[in-house]
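Dear colleague,

As promised, here are the two records you asked about, laid out in our usual form so they can be pasted straight into your sheet.

NAME FIELD: protein one
SEQUENCE, THEN STRUCTURE:
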Amino acid sequence: MKKIALLCAASAAGIAAPAFAQSSGPIEIADATTLDVIVDGTLRYETVSQPDTAADDADALTFRMRSGIELVSHGFFALGEMEATMAIVDDYNDTIPGNGIEPYSVIPDPENVELNRLQIGYKSKAATVTLGRQRIALDDHRFVGNVGWRQNEQTFDAVRGQGKIGPVALDATYAISQRTIFGVDSPNAHFDGDMILLNGGIDVKFAQIKAFAYLLDFDDEKPLRLPFSSQSYGLRAAGAMPIGESFKINYAASYARQSDYGDNPVSYSADFINGEAGFAIGPVGLTGGYELLGSDDGIAAFQTPLATLHKFNGFADLFLTTPANGLQDYYGTASIKAGDVAMMKGLNASVTYHQFDSDVGGMDYGSEWDAALAFKIGKIGLLAKYANYKADEFGTDTEKFWLQASFGF
C-alpha cells in the first residue's frame, strides 16, 4: 500500500505518460521548415501474484521517459528519440540474466537506456517513405504492433512505404530487425532476419477491408526464434454502422492462413479466425467475440510474434506464445464512456471475461476477468487495470494490478 500511495502522490505532482509520444506542436524555424520537440513519460506501479508457483509476489514501480526531436523541411523529415526506464521499486524478475537471484514473478520492464527511433524520410499528400528505426503498428496490432503497453517500446529497423489513392491504401515494409521490449542488456534485445510486411485495403461505406501478407524469416543466430519463422496471408474487415442518433453497431472479422517459412525446422499450417460484434447505446457498449489461433494436430500453432500481444487474450498475458494445441478465446466486454465527471475528463471503464480452450485435444485452459478504468485530470492521464486468470489445464493462477500516470508534450 505504501507503493500505491507513492504512485498516487507522484501522479498528483504531474509524473505521468501516454502510450505514444506526444508534442505541443511544431515550431517554425525557417520557410516551410519546422522543429518538433517530443517528450512523454509513464510512471507505473505493477504487482503480480502467482500463489501456486515458487515465485514470490512481484512489485515494480518504474518510470519511463522518451524524448526526441523531429525536423521537417519541404516534405523531408528526420526524427531521433531516446528512451530510458528506471526501476524505483525493483522487487520483480525483469527477465535480464546476470542480475542475481530474482525469486519473483516476471514483469518485463527492465531498466534500460536505448535509441528508440532514428529515421529519415519524405512525406507528400499521396505517399510516405521512412527509413531507419521506427514504430510500426498495423490495423489493430494483432499481427504487427509497437507493444506500447510495456515501458520499453518495440520498434523495427526497416524501410517502409505508404501510399493512398482515393479510397485505396497500400503499406509495404522490409525490416531486418525487431527491437524488442526487453532492453539493450537482454540476449533478446533484438531478433534479426528478413521480415516482409504487406498490407493494403479499401475504405467503403461502413467498412474498411484489408488484405495482408506477413513473411518472417528469422536468422539462425538465435535458434529458439526459428520456430517463429512463418508466412501468413489473410483478410480483415472492420467497421461501424450508426442507427439513429444514439445507437451504433460495431463489427470486425479476420481470417488468415499461416505455415512455416524460411529456416523454420517444423513443417505446419494453421488457421486464424476472429469474429467480433457489438453495439453502443449512448455511453454504454457491449461486445462479444471469438478468436482462434489454430493448431496443426498439436505439432505447432499459429503465432504472431510481432504483435502487441498484451491487447489480446487477456491482460494477465498467459498466452503471449500460443500453446502447441492452439487457442480458442471466447470473450465478452461491457464498457461505459461517462465523459467528463467533475475533475475527471474522459472517464471510461470496461470489464471483460475470457474463456480459454485448446483448438485440439479438448483442453479447458482456464478463464480470466479483466477490468480497466481511465480518465484525465488536467493533462495527466490516469489508469487502473486488473487481471485475474484462473487456471484449469494450462498455466497457473495469476493476479495482476496496475496503477499508471502519464503525460506528454
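NAME FIELD: protein two
SEQUENCE, THEN STRUCTURE:
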Amino acid sequence: MSETNQTQTDTTTSSFQSTEDMVNAMSNHETDALSKSQADLAELQAKSADLADQYLRAKADADNARRRADEEISKARKFAVESFAESLLPVADSLEAGLILKEATADQIREGAQATLRQLLAALERNKVAPINPAAGSKFDPHLHQAISVVPSELEANTVVTVLQKGYSIADRTLRPALVTVSAPK
C-alpha cells in the first residue's frame, strides 16, 4: 500500500474512532442527564408525597378540633341551665312546704312568702341575674328602661318618675327592661 492510502486509512480509522467516541460521549452525557432527571423526579415525588401526608394530617387535626368544639358547645347549651335549675329547687321546696300547711295564719303565710322570696333573690344573684330598679330622678336609659307613660313632673325632662315593675339583667344583658314613667319636658 502506498503511503497516501495508509494515511487515508489511518485518518478514516481515527475519524471513525473520534465519531464513535463522540457518540459514546453524547450517549454518556444523555444517560447522565437522564439519571439526574430521574433522581430529581424521584426527589420531587417524595417531597410531594410528604406534603400530601402533612396536608391530610393537618386536615384531620382541624376536623377533629372542629368536632370537639361542636360537642363542647352542644354540651354547654344542654347543661347551661343546670346550675340555675339547681338554685331554684330550694325555692320550689319552700313553696310546696307552705302549701302543705292547711291552717296557717296570715302572718305565717307572709313570713313564709318573704323567706321564699329571699331564697329566690339569692338564687337569681348566684346566677348573675340582677334587678333593674332605677331610683326616682335617675336618667332614662332605653337599654334598661321601658317608658310606659310621660307625666308632668318637677324633675328634669326624660328622668324616671316612678318604677311600675322592676326589670332584670343577666351578665350586663337586659332580660326584661324596667317599666317606668318618665317626666315630660317643661
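A couple of things worth noting about protein two: The helical segments are 3-79, 82-100, 106-126. The mean pLDDT is 87.

Best,
R.
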